[in-house]
Design brief:
The protein is an alpha/beta fold. The protein is 27% helix and 24% strand. The strands form three sheets. A seven-stranded mixed beta sheet has the order 3-2-1-4-5-11-10, sandwiched between helices. It is globular and about 60 Å long. The structure holds S-adenosylmethionine. S-adenosylmethionine binds next to loops.
């Protein structure tokens, strides 16, 4: 069951209102291959390759490794692991990784690319307790995936059940305050020679199709992203037994044009972050299933 009423008052917008109370039992399992990501798997695998794309290599993965602080020999759960790019970076430091993802093709790629410290499991993140059958982890990561999931309560709760008290969960989000596709845009203020960020929406929950690789001939391939305001993430983490202990905002490493606007563009890229990283600690009083 979704965290939000499904009735929509306009396209892309969920009805405003309080989130519905999450149920304790996990939702019925859907076939793992029945996700939009499976149709994008070849493109995503090519884009991430062995080491990750430039956003992963330069921004996302260094932040996740920094926040996880996983030590050699520790075990990390990589929930929604894609083709295992994080797992390979962790394994290179002696950490043992189990990755879970719903896309059979991405799991196959992760397995093919894996070293001896990594293993990968095909399945739905909403059903982690079934998939992991009681395995225990020191830490967990959810990298650029929570916004693909609805609801999120069972996933965060499943991570809490899998991680020992005191262990960390690192969540990376496309920044919900500044990077809402179709609603947030760059603009140019000619008079003040200023690049600004225009925000046409934030507080209302929204369900959005995301074109995954625009620009390719006739491409209409998309996945679904669920926009939530920041407190919904913080509250869902708390309700699942996670206390947020640290946070980072990651700014684009890419630089703009070389023209007269370049300085203003660079300044704007240093003002408005691309990603939000939340690090949470598993409370000893995490709710039992
Ligand atoms: C943007 S990709 C991120 C993958 C990886 N964490 C990374 O950083 O490259 C989102 C991933 O979430 C996975 N995913 C989406 N819904 C899922 C679900 N219900 N259960 C497990 N994985 C899911 C997709 O298959 C995809 O691999």
């Amino acid at each position: 069951m979704s965290e939000f009423p499904r009735r929509r008052s306009d396209p892309g917008r969920w009805k405003q209102g309080r989130p519905t109370t999450p149920r304790r039992s996990p939702p019925a399992k859907t076939p793992a291959s029945n996700t939009a990501w499976e149709r994008q798997a070849a493109w995503y695998d090519e884009r991430q390759g062995q080491e990750g794309d430039d956003f992963h290599r330069d921004l996302v993965l260094p932040a996740v490794l920094r926040q996880l602080q996983a030590q050699p020999g520790q075990r990390v759960l990589d929930c929604c692991c894609g083709n295992g790019v994080l797992g390979r970076h962790l394994a290179a430091t002696g950490v043992r990784v189990v990755g879970v993802d719903a896309s059979p093709s991405l799991i196959e790629s992760a397995q093919e690319r894996a070293g001896s410290h990594e293993s990968y499991v095909l399945g739905d993140a909403h059903a982690l307790p079934d998939l992991l059958s009681g395995e225990s982890f020191d830490h967990a990561a959810l990298v650029l995936a929570l916004q693909d999931l609805d609801p999120i309560n069972h996933v965060l709760h499943g991570c809490a059940q899998a991680v020992r008290p005191g262990g960390r969960l690192v969540v990376v989000l496309t920044h919900p305050c500044f990077r809402l596709p179709k609603y947030h845009h760059w603009g140019w203020d000619e008079e003040n020679e200023l690049q600004y960020r225009r925000l046409d929406g934030y507080a209302l929950p929204r369900r959005l199709p995301i074109v995954t690789h625009p620009g390719r001939d006739g491409n209409t391939a998309s996945t679904t992203s669920y926009h939530r305001a920041l407190p919904l993430y913080l509250n869902a983490l708390g309700a699942a037994g996670w206390a947020v202990t640290a946070s980072e905002e990651l700014f684009s490493h890419r630089r703009g044009s070389k023209g007269r606007r370049s300085q203003a563009e660079d300044l704007a890229h240093r003002e408005f972050p691309v990603f939000l990283v939340l690090t949470a600690e598993r409370l000893s009083s995490a709710p039992a299933d």
